[in-house]
Amino acid sequence: MAQGIGIRYSTHGIRMLKVENNGGDLAITGIAAGKPGESLESFATEHGIELEGTMTAFSLGPGDFLCASIKQEDETDDSQLEELLRWDIQQKILSDPGEFNFDFITIGDMKFSFAGQKKLIRKMAGSLANTLVDVEPIALFNGYEGSEGIENTSVMLVSVEAEGISSIVIENGLPVSIESFALNEDAIDEVFPALDHDAMSRVDNATLERLADDVLESVNRLTSAGENKENPTPEHLVLTGAALYAGDFKDIVENKATIAPVVFNPFVPYMQDVKELHQELAEMGSAFTTCFGLALRAMEV
Question: Rounded to two decimals, what is the model's pTM?
Answer without folding.
Answer: 0.92
